[in-house]
Please model this.
Amino acid sequence: MKNPSKSFKPPLLLVWFFAFILMGFQFSSVAPANYEPILMTRLDMESSVKLREPRSIENPGKIWIYGDIILLIEQYKGIHVIDNSDPANSNTIAFIQVDGCTDMAMKGNILYANNAVDMIGIKPNQNFDDFTVVARNRNMLPIIASPEPSGDWYFYEKLPANTVIVRWVPYQN
Model:
């Protein structure tokens, strides 16, 4: 007869089975709760590159100096155009709306910037109070990544056709 004082030991296979089930909960298909993507249709994104009135700087990014003009990125929203001909009294003269913009460079008289996944060339006039989009290379850049390291795959798999992620914002319950 067996000794009842010995504790029950489940078979090793059963322990592995339950551990595998519990690990599966880490990889569920539930959307990340901290951030959500802001989407635009491709047509809306391309047509939204416009010259706007100056606005306050909220989330600055890269800066570029072009003569007396300072170009300052507003992360994921566009580019501030600042007249710096009098450094003691610099003046924001315009805002170029470029959704998904995080980087820019100026070569010659062309301003290059990312418009989410596209690279565009913008030719401003001499006073930077008007411009023309002279080039667009579609889908040249990767999709804008989520601030959450594990959040990308869920939204990329469910991204509607003909839409682009232009930024991520904190999720609002």
Notes: The first helix runs from residue 12 to 24.
